Amino acid sequence: MTLTVFADLNAFLGEWDPIGMPKGLELDEYQMYVPGLLAAYNKGQTVERFLLWVYEQQIGFEVNEEFWAFTRPLAERITQYLRAHEE
Description:
The protein has helices spanning about 5-15, 25-30, 35-40, 45-60, 65-85.
């Protein structure tokens, strides 16, 4: 993974920001999930499924309509980005 791809995926996760970090801290908060996101994608798992796993299993939140309303479109954007940057 290049530094650019890492930074871009981290920015996507910062935009997602499911726990509502203060502005400027969201990039640090979610960067630990970038390698897992990329690994899951490379193994054929959907981005949406990975984000659901983070939300439920790692953060401990229950899924609701607001989660899906924001996560589905963002997952699609991340998927399109990853497809465009496949090596």
